[in-house]
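Predict structure. Chain length: 209.
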Amino acid sequence: MIVLGLDTCLTACSVAVTDGGRVLAYASEVMARGHQERLAPMAERVMAEAGLSFDRLERIGVTVGPGSFTGLRVGVAFAKGLGASLAVPTAGVGTLEALAAEAGGLAFAAVDARRDQVYLQGFEDGRALMAPDVLPVHVAAARLAELAMGRPLTLVGSGGPLLAGVSPGARLIKMEGADARHVARLASGKAAAPLRPLYLRAPDARLPA
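Prediction complete.
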């Protein structure tokens, strides 16, 4: 299955195309903003490097959150539009699931959500130990300690340093965004479905009074 994987949920823009799990081409750029301008050209470049036209795609996978509201919408809208125009099925991948795929074993994806909160989800050998959640840092630390039970673990994402004190020997992997290669792999194993953003809290922006 030829899959295009996309991630724009955090502070990076990442695109990959895979065939049967084999990575054909991949690109990633760190960026706090500007995903909308970079995503389409990056996708075109990756497909060209893979030697494929877009009509060869059989699945489009994209991270659906949690993450930046603007970045999340950019990725989901692009995947929806491309999927509809090509009649290619889409599959949403949780940002935290894609981050944790970087580690394997006992891994917790933790993203700094500001306001003294983190987005958190734990996995063991790819199996989710909890649903994705947004928690105060001290509550997230308690949840992590409860699930880890003192075992060696990996913390992946910008929220890892906030929780490292709970498990002093934890391995830290700092990532600006999910790796689109993992997104493509995970999407290939999911049932195709309409894309729905995963929002765990209301946006920070407020309409003027």
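Summary: The first strand starts at residue 2 and ends at 7.
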